[in-house]
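STRUCTURE:
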């Protein structure tokens, strides 16, 4: 008969930390896949689209989704990568697209391109469900709707 003091001999003795590298690898892969899926599916076809919202006229992508700016970015440089870019997908610019009327195309790490307005990189908020939603305005005090 198995006694209580013998139980430890029959159970695996893995520490929770033993699987940490695997968890980090799986989480990193998931972020990369989600970023690629969300960014490419929400790329504006043309710069300069506006949409009327509860906050007034804002910049929007070709699908009417509100565009946002991030206070931690620098002119022409995005600092939103990884999980940030999953929640706030960059407004991806296609190959050979050029800007106009204050819009420019800036490079991103990895070779992709992103729309910017007067040098500020533009993003879409994943929680905005419908065109004209402005749920991302004011998030963490650093995200703002992009206004024309």
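SEQUENCE:
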């Amino acid at each position: 008969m198995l006694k209580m003091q013998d139980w430890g001999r029959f159970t695996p003795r893995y520490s929770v930390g033993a699987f940490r590298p695997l968890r980090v690898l799986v989480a990193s892969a998931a972020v990369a896949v989600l970023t690629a899926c969300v960014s490419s599916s929400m790329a504006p076809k043309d710069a300069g689209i506006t949409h009327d919202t509860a906050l007034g006229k804002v910049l929007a992508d070709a699908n009417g989704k509100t565009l946002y700016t991030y206070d931690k970015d620098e002119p022409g440089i995005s600092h939103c990568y990884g999980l940030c870019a999953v929640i706030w997908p960059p407004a991806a610019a296609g190959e050979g697209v050029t800007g106009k009327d204050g819009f420019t195309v800036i490079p991103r790490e990895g070779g992709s391109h992103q729309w910017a307005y007067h040098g500020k990189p533009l993003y879409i908020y994943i929680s905005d469900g419908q065109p004209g939603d402005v749920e991302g305005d004011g998030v963490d005090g650093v995200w703002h709707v992009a206004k024309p």
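REMARK: Residues 29-45 have pLDDT under 50 and may be disordered.
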